[in-house]
Design brief:
Blueprint: E1 20-23, H1 27-44, E2 47-50, H2 53-60
Parallel strand pairs: 1-2
Length: 71
């Protein structure tokens, strides 16, 4: 096995079949995340970029109360 092809034999670090959501409150991060979204959407599927946690909660169908702080 050659060195340049070794990465193809490993499972991806991020599960590809699950929806992905990025909360980007800063405009520069939002722009970069949107570029990433456009580059990968036809390959891997569902990927959303939003500007606030409220939008993320709405997309996921959860409320902030659904999460607990871990100590």
């Amino acid at each position: 096995m050659s060195g340049e092809n070794i990465a193809a034999h490993y499972s991806p670090a991020v599960l590809l079949r699950r929806p992905h959501l990025v909360v980007a409150e800063q405009q520069r991060i939002y722009g970069l995340a949107r570029l990433y979204e456009m580059c990968r959407e036809h390959i891997y599927g569902h990927f959303d970029v939003v500007e606030t946690l409220e939008e993320a909660y709405k997309i996921c169908g959860v409320l902030p109360e659904d999460f607990k702080q871990r100590l």
